[in-house]
Amino acid sequence: MSTSTQNRGEPVTPVTPAVHTAGVAALLERGRALTTPVLRAVVARLAPPMDSVAAYHFGWIDAEGRPTAADSGKAVRPALAVLSAEAAGAPAEAGVPGAVAVELVHNFSLLHDDLMDGDEQRRHRDTVWKVHGPAQAILVGDALFALAGEILLELGTVEAGRAARRLTAATRKLIDGQAQDLAYEHRERVSVAECLEMEGNKTGALLACATSIGAVLGGADDRTADTLERYGHHLGLAFQAVDDLLGIWGDPVATGKQTWSDLRQRKKSLPVVAALAADGPASRELARLLAADAGKSDAEFMDFDEDQFAARAALIEQAGGRDWTSQEARRQHATAVAALAEVELPERVRAELTALADFVVVRER
Amino acid sequence: MSTSTQNRGEPVTPVTPAVHTAGVAALLERGRALTTPVLRAVVARLAPPMDSVAAYHFGWIDAEGRPTAADSGKAVRPALAVLSAEAAGAPAEAGVPGAVAVELVHNFSLLHDDLMDGDEQRRHRDTVWKVHGPAQAILVGDALFALAGEILLELGTVEAGRAARRLTAATRKLIDGQAQDLAYEHRERVSVAECLEMEGNKTGALLACATSIGAVLGGADDRTADTLERYGHHLGLAFQAVDDLLGIWGDPVATGKQTWSDLRQRKKSLPVVAALAADGPASRELARLLAADAGKSDAEFMDFDEDQFAARAALIEQAGGRDWTSQEARRQHATAVAALAEVELPERVRAELTALADFVVVRER
């Protein structure tokens, strides 16, 4: 059990691999630059008003329809998809339909999950169902999912069919993960194994697909694609473990989220379930507090002051939930990087996939 | 303009082609028998509780989870999909994955549309969102859509990729149609052309896909598939025109719906928009009444007695909306049957596709 007294603001993962920040920024920017114009063109195929609702969701226009330059996210998936094509010896461009299809599925799930979860904010903006109503959130989500199949299958190649099949499998896992998330909301106790399985479905599956889809489109065999997918799956789990740390101890200035964000939402994230699974007085005290919290209305809970959340965060840390999750991020990072050793790759691609894995665990937003 | 005084209970379409009822019943039963076991097995792939929610939606279990034998619909699409395979000279079984995929997409759209439209009943039962909540309706709809892609793409053939592409195109039209339906709800006037376009998207596209998907899986070329799709599109428009007639003048005992069902829901269906588009005193009086209705709350509207709906139905008929829609059903039927002449088909298949088209226009439920 940890008795560490690390404060918020410090890096959440003690591991500091040699990440060349400028290199990773360039990789992410390249993925974004290749993907965004195609994504915009595909979304523009939607009939009004679905095209505008989608453009609002992606942060391209505001609620009044004026062009904006909203935060469009880290773009890890597009970077992975174009690298994935190069992993198979194909040009980066061969991965672009895969990158676009994965982004479409990711955003389809955001639109529907925000509505199912009643989340009113995403990336500092009102969610689609808040602005355009529940029906548009459902409908435009459906339309993005359909567009994802369209952009792959219209390529008309055998490879595109295989890519579409992998994307469908990943989407089914995404849906399984959301089903688990909804079920766990109503449960008092969730095990670490259940939490990891849910995160594997919700985050791992689509990151895994991003990492293999470019290679599949570029003509890679199943073994290569499966190994890249394994890298992506563990990368996704590392990514989510770090997200769960940032959700409690992240610097609000960097993450753009409220302090103690996941605690405010009573999320049963990894640090929480790991702390509850531990033995000892901090774990028992935490369990007692959270059981009492569960009985409170959202309004009562909102009235909590900073100290009350800080007390819960301190108990999670004392019970070892923070350390366990940091170690889990490092374990998943190591497993991801090890998978890369099992597949023949151009050396530059291997170095870039490794750099992306390093970035995922040291990022602060 | 018609001044006919036909009563409810009479056939809604004056045309009576030589339909061999027993033969059509056998065709529908064959499609159902080939499709249902595979559909059930595919739905059983869903993780709990999605499998039960889907089974409830399909009418296989009741809200308490007990097996039931609820009305599972007419099963026109499965019958078309297996006939479609035979149209390409393949065995009926080759069309089954297509039939299942089309049924999955159809039911995905029902789950989401019922929630978007706030419909509380379907086939005499509470809708999924009423019984299991909006989140499950969204999630299980998504899951059925994903399963549709899965069952086709796991075949792993070039033909399956082409079939999946056609299904995706049809799904996009389905979504376009629902977007139009939602938009028209808030408009005072909808033109006949707009109504026909919406019905082509909401009903024509998936029926068209059902009619070509078996042939595509059976190895047909694009020209054959396109011609079959044209037959299916016009069949779908004929089907919907008849549905719109049954929605006002159908016999409640046969349809299982309330009297004046579409009028109670203030649907801008074909007979209504055709009547409003006509000239003359009945059309103007109808427009006046419907404009006043639009200002009423649902509760006020529910208090209407039979006579008030009967008066509206009589005005629609006097303004020619009923006759125009009957003629439209016959026009679409004739165009569908004419398309069949443009393609080489085994004679039995041609006869059966013709019999199904005849059935669609004379059916009373």
UniProtKB/TrEMBL annotation, chains A, B:
CDD domains xref list: Trans_IPPS_HT (cd00685)
Alphabetized PROSITE patterns for the sequence: POLYPRENYL_SYNTHASE_1
Signal peptide: none
Gene3D superfamilies: Farnesyl Diphosphate Synthase (1.10.600.10)
Pfam families in the record: polyprenyl_synt
UniProt keywords, alphabetically: Magnesium, Metal-binding, Transferase
PANTHER family for this protein: (2E,6E)-FARNESYL DIPHOSPHATE SYNTHASE, GERANYLGERANYL PYROPHOSPHATE SYNTHASE
Family under the similarity heading: Belongs to the FPP/GGPP synthase family.
Name used for this protein in its record: Polyprenyl synthetase family protein
Source species of the chain: Streptomyces pactum
